[in-house]
Design a protein that fits this description.
The protein is about 40% helix and about 15% strand. It is α/β, with parallel strands linked by helices. It has two domains: about 210 residues, P-loop containing nucleotide triphosphate hydrolases (Rossmann fold, 3-Layer(aba) Sandwich); about 140 residues, 3-Layer(aba) Sandwich (Rossmann fold). Helix 2 packs parallel to helix 3 and helix 3 crosses helix 4. The longest helix has 15 residues.
Length: about 425
Amino acid sequence: MSFSKLNLSKPILRAIEEQGYSNPTPVQAKAIPIILSRQDVLAGAQTGTGKTAGFTLPLLELLSEHAQSKGRSPIRALILTPTRELATQVHESVKTYGKYLPYKSTVIFGGVGINPQIANFRRGVDIVVATPGRLLDHIGRKTVDLSKVEFLILDEADRMLDMGFINDIKKILALLQKKRQNLLFSATFSDDIKKLADNLLNAPILIEVARRNTASELVEQLVHPVDKARKRELLSRLIKKGGWKQVLVFTRTKHGANKLSGQLEKDGISSAAIHGNKSQGARTKALANFKSGSVRVLVATDIAARGIDIDQLPHVVNFELPNISEDYVHRIGRTGRAGSEGVAISLVCVDELLYLKDIEKLIKRKIPQERVEGFEPDPTIRPEPVKKKSNSRNRNRPKPSREDSKPSSRSSRNRRRA
């Protein structure tokens, strides 16, 4: 099937063609006709499947079919995302495919000045891509009017709930008109997601293009058992010996990301860290340098990595396994995207064997293990509990959100940084 068979207008097809695409991905082929029929959608899709274009293309088409009268544009579409990086990525998709359409769009997130955002709202915009925290800031200042929103899209809804945004989302929903089209996209389906979908969606059509909570089949997964104290040494060797030019490395903590990035620099490997404590400017610069190739390794925490979209990223490394199994799926989904193959390597010490077991249970497969000569684990080392944050969650899954409870301190910090 080609895009020309999906009932998209010529200006949108022209923009698609300029990007070098002719055939939709599976999620696009399924989602676009359903969204164009004005039905609510609950979509389960792994990262890298083309889901962003799967909702931006039909959204732009529907806006075109029901054009507003001339004058100051009311906000007609609202797209909520959990992180700044993902918001930027989605906004780029809106601009790319709406290139030949007369619609104005803006992206709203924290960490940058609010006055230019207020100015954009005053001039009028049709489409807003936002993180919940900064959007609530505007709502509190009465600088945004959401009463005319016709389309609501929640992207990576599972991560938004995991970050404690449920109460923020409820506040935003209360300001929207009842008659609207709702689209909910999530990589995983937890009980919390099902509850949100039940309250938000009206007779939704379910779209799934991959088995629930599974990793992309295009990603080769491998575990290297190694002692904790020798992980950095092994990582440097793998990068140098393998001639890896672009590697995304995950750590559990911001401090760990900074420390590892500095160590890799000392090993002669250009590196940058990206996490919630970095300013938006620093995060944008690090990501741009990584994409351009001037930085070889990008060391990231889970939250900061959401929305990182790099074509043909060849290598992802779990320097430390996540203590939430679903995060493993999100991490390795940074590679093997949109038909490209990738490799995801996990450096696993004895302390993390239970995490590995949980991950394998979630993805329903054993991950092959390969010992690297000279880095075999010391069998006399006994496992020690992995240090967790003070308000750490259950190891297997996020703690269910209670809609009437106050957000945790961690959730509050995440919202401020978004």
